[in-house]
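hi! just following up on the protien thing from before. the input was this:
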Amino acid sequence: PLRGNLFESLIISEILKWHYNRGEDPRVFFWRDKSHHEVDCVIPKNNHLIPIEIKAARTPNTRLFEGISYWNTLTENKQESFVVYGGTPTQPRPTIQLISWQAMEPIFNALTKKA
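and the predicted 3d structure came back as:
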């Protein structure tokens, strides 16, 4: 039962550490609406928000993408969005990238990309 919470904390701490190591003040947010749709991590970048969903599951399945898909539809987001999961293969996809917790470079690349 705690695995998901611990995994989410690990990923958020890696994102915070990345910001601090660059000498930046991290602006990392959580989003949830009144219907309990949520995105674990939302990071402002230039004029848009980068949503990151964090799932401890080791096997990709469609449920991993529900929160991000809802966010992207609600916000009309056409920018990068990511699901970090507990599995090993990273799977770049057209709209939502499935990122292994062991290979978070695509997220950090998106955060350093110029407008």
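The first strand starts at residue 29 and ends at 32.
The radius of gyration is 13 Å.
cheers
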